[in-house]
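Reopening: structure tokens for the 5-O-phosphono-beta-D-ribofuranosylamine complex, inputs below.
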Amino acid sequence: MLASGTGTVLGSIIEHGPPVALVVTDRTCPALDVASTAGVPTVPINRRDFGYRPRSDWDRRGFTLAIDAALEAAHIDLVAMAGFFTILHEVIFERYSGRILNTHPALLPAFKGAHAVRDTLAAGVPVTGPTIHVATEILDDERHILAQSASVPVLAGDDVDSLWERIKAEERRLYPQVLWEIVNGEIDLET
Ligand code: GRF
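Re-run output (same inputs, fresh job):
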């Protein structure tokens, strides 16, 4: 699994999903502690070590190849991103074609990008929910959606934090379920 943030979705997958072999992060973050506490091996790969600077170019390819090496060393065959904040270089999508998953806190193809929850609120839609999809080099690619849950009402008085937390509660339920369905052959990643 790849994570960058608080790791609550990661934690739910560790608890309720198929066995997690490895957690890779792009920074020092609480997700590392979530994995360590659960006894899951971790590999922190700090993107800043690869030249990352806000609002500037950086060596995305070198960083991505470092992640690739960590996955290969652990014989990983399915990659699940959960709150991973770096856009990976296309080399990894070629190697793991169709086998990198992501969860997005909106109903794709609506509200792509890092501000999905803010944009959902601004649009004034009554309902939202997460999308679990096959990730590609195209940001928030909606071409291969595995599961979507239009189950989260947008309430009067919601702010980004309150709405996002209810979406994440649904992600914590849905993502482990989707991963089990893949492992059990009920979802075919090839189609
Ligand atoms: C989730 O809402 C996910 O869709 C988004 O980041 C959030 C991760 O939350 N990409 P957490 O770090 O697992 O709490």
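The beta strands are 2-3, 23-25, 42-44, 79-81, 100-104, 127-128, 131-134, 145-148, 152-153. Helices lie at 8-16, 30-37, 60-73, 90-95, 116-123, 160-183. Marking as resolved unless the reporter disagrees.
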